[in-house]
Amino acid sequence: MALFKAYFSDHEDISNDLQLALIAEKAGFNKAQALSVLQTKQYEKAVRDAQKRWRTQEINSVPSSILQRKYLIAGAQDIKAWHGRILLTKSWQMIYNRAEKIKATI
Fold it and tell me: What pTM was computed for the model?
């Protein structure tokens, strides 16, 4: 939330590494470590790989939630949509479990 506040409420320049490190410090992180990570791009590959993985699963909106690493709920949804997706997830999981038990006996 510190980053959202800095950008949307305080109109801070979040493209500046030093500014980001200061925001991180306000959020309880070590400023020097945050600045080092930003300047060395230490986690850039891991972040890009995660972005690629989520994009291949057609996640391109915020918020997006994934249930059981399989089922996507994209965008803000009301409680009925969540309830329906959870019931569907449970149903599919029961079917899958039964199929696996039958397969194991064959």
Answer: 0.56
